[in-house]
Structures are given as C-alpha cells and as structure tokens.
Design goal:
Length: 317
C-alpha cells in the first residue's frame, strides 16, 4: 500500500521544485490553495488532463478551473473583459473564478474546457500555490482533489484518504484558510452570472459590479444528467456505435483494425489517450467538409463512461 509519507510533500523549496517538475512531466499533483486542495496537471497537456478525470473517477467531463500566478497570464489565454479587469483587481489573488471566452489560439487543452468556448480561470492567493504555479511555468488545471461524489478536501490528509494511490504527490500547505470552493462567475455572456456560490460572498461581488444573475445549472455534481447548462456539441450530426462511415460522414475510430478510419481516438485502445483526443478531434472533424461524424463503439468502463456521456450529449443536442 502507498504510505502517506511517500506522497505528502511538506512545503520546502526542494519539494515545491520537484512537484513543479512533475507537472511539467505531465503528472498529477494535488496542492493546497486558500479555498480547497486542487488536483493539478499541466493545463496545456491533453493527456495530463485526462489523467485528472481518471483519478477523480468522474462519470463525465466537467470543465475544470485553470490556475495562474497573475492576471497578465490569464489575459494571454482568454478575452479579458472590462468587468473581468474590475473583478480581478478587487478579488485576485483569491477565491474567485471567472468564466471567460477562450482566445482563438488559447493553448489550454479543450478537454479542460470540456469542449466549451469558455474557460474558468483563477489566481489563487495561497503562497504555496503561487510558488508552485510559478515554478511549474504552465497554467495548472485543477478540480477539487477528491474522488467524484466526495466532499472537497481541506487538508493534505483528506486528499490522501480520497485519492492516495491516484496522485503522484500532494503538496502540503496546511489546512485551507477559506475551506469552501471559489465563487464562480460567468462573464462570457452579457449579464454576469453566479454559477456557484463560494468563498467570496455574492454581496461583495455585487458591491463592485452590480447585480448578478443566478444560475443553478452548472453545479460540479449535476443532480440530473443534462443539468450542466452548456456542453459541447458539433454543428454536424453524430452517429454512435458505428462500424463504418456512410457517404459524406467522417469516421472517428477507437482501437486497432480500423485502417479506413479518418481519425482514431486511440489506435491502441487506450481510454486515457482517447479522452485526451476527444474534444480536439470532434472539433477538427466538425471544421471539415463532412456532413456528419460516425463514432465507433467505446467501451463503457473507466474513462469510457465519461467519453460516452459526452458523446451521447453531443449526439442528442
Ligand atoms: O476553489 C476552487 O474553485 C477549487 C480550487 C482547487 O481552485 N476548484 C474547484 O474545482 O472547486 P471543481 O472542478 O471542483 O469545480 C469547478 C466548477 C464546477 O462547478 C464547474 O462546472 C465550473 O467550475 N466550471 C468550470 N469551467 C466552466 C466553464 N467553462 N463554464 C461553466 N462552468 C465552469
Ligand atoms: Mg469539486
């Protein structure tokens, strides 16, 4: 069995440096923030992000929050609006997450956005998180560091109990001062909308930018399928469990023995690789001459459950 001593790293400069190096190597590292512990991976690395979903055992790909050291870095990857500037000045670094439109050339993995045109971004205030992000030299995507369906962890020991054998390291910055997830505000449409109440009170935010709309459609544990207010769907129809493409259809294959495939999610039948490729390949096929996408059957186990969840949503919308 994995011992907690092997995985939990105290906040020494050497440990921060090695945890940051693990991120650059595409590994999954849990780290403390002022809100709750996050399960981090290089946000620009599709396979590293797929590893997060695998570790959490989530039955679907919810979009993740991406963490940065400062506002200037955030503004490199999303369209940073005037309202975002005002909120960033008021509450960053801190327990506020903003959902903004991805820039056209946004380097962050589409899997981290669950295929959406938007990205959730945050600059945390915890000094350990800050130093770790700085040394990782990459934006770090991190959902709360718990298995799906469990509550968010606020100590390194909680993370170990929930995910112990699934993470490469847990960077221990002590108990979280806020202890509640960040407040999530969607600024990607005309009216700023509260998607999730959290560490910064609604009134505090309204004091700065005026009234917020409220949505209950973007919980990280949707009470029923389809409750997430938005999800990615291509503009052309998707046909599931296909053996081959019909005339005019693109073929999205999975596994060996599919030479005629236009595109293969994973030649070797690896579900982590398939998850990493899913949104980028769907989007790519959507932008070509095809009038539909035929997708081979994906096994309904492990990350295949989340892949099939997203494919079914895309096929029925
Ligand atoms: O305090 C926190 O926010 C922690 C720390 C680690 O930063 N993270 C966290 O992540 O709670 P997670 O994945 O457990 O929750 C992320 C929330 C979910 O409700 C998700 O639906 C929403 O943010 N979200 C992320 N990206 C979104 C997007 N593009 N559009 C709408 N909602 C989004
Ligand atoms: Mg969570």
């Amino acid at each position: 069995m994995t011992q907690s001593d092997d995985i939990i790293l105290g906040a020494s400069p050497g440990n921060i440096a090695s945890a940051a190096a693990m991120i650059r190597d595409g590994k999954q590292v849990a780290f403390s923030t002022e809100t709750v512990y996050g399960l981090g991976a290089d946000a620009t690395n599709d396979e590293a992000i797929a590893g997060i979903f695998e570790a959490k055992g989530r039955p679907s790909f919810n979009p993740l929050i991406v963490h940065f050291t400062n506002t200037a870095q955030v503004a490199n990857v999303v369209d940073f609006s005037e309202t975002a500037t005002v909120l960033g000045e008021a509450f960053w670094p801190g327990a506020l997450t903003l959902v903004l439109k991805r820039k056209i050339d946004c380097p962050v993995s589409l899997l981290a956005s669950a295929g959406l045109e938007t990205l959730a971004v945050r600059v945390p205030s915890h000094p350990l998180a800050h130093e770790f992000l700085k040394q990782a030299r990459a934006p770090v995507a991190a959902p709360s560091a718990n298995r799906s369906g469990q509550i968010s962890p606020t100590t390194a020991e909680h993370v170990f109990e929930s995910l112990g054998d699934k993470v490469d390291a847990i960077l221990d910055g002590g108990p979280c001062a806020v202890g509640l997830e960040s407040t999530v505000i969607d600024l990607s449409s005309d009216t700023p909308t509260l998607l999730r109440p959290g560490g910064i009170a609604r009134e505090e935010i309204e004091a700065v930018i005026g009234p917020l709309e409220v949505s209950d459609g973007s919980d990280d544990a949707p009470r029923s399928p389809g409750m997430l207010s938005r999800h990615y769907a291509p503009s052309i129809p998707i046909r599931l469990n296909a053996d081959k493409a019909n005339d005019g259809e693109a073929f999205l294959a999975f596994g060996v023995g599919t030479d005629a495939a236009d595109v293969n999610l994973s030649q070797s039948g690896d579900l982590v690789e398939a998850a990493a490729n899913l949104f980028a390949m769907l989007r790519m096929l959507d932008q070509t001459k095809y009038n539909g996408i035929a997708v081979m059957k994906i096994p309904d186990s492990g990350l295949g459950i989340a892949i099939n969840d997203r494919l079914e949503r895309a096929a029925t919308s």
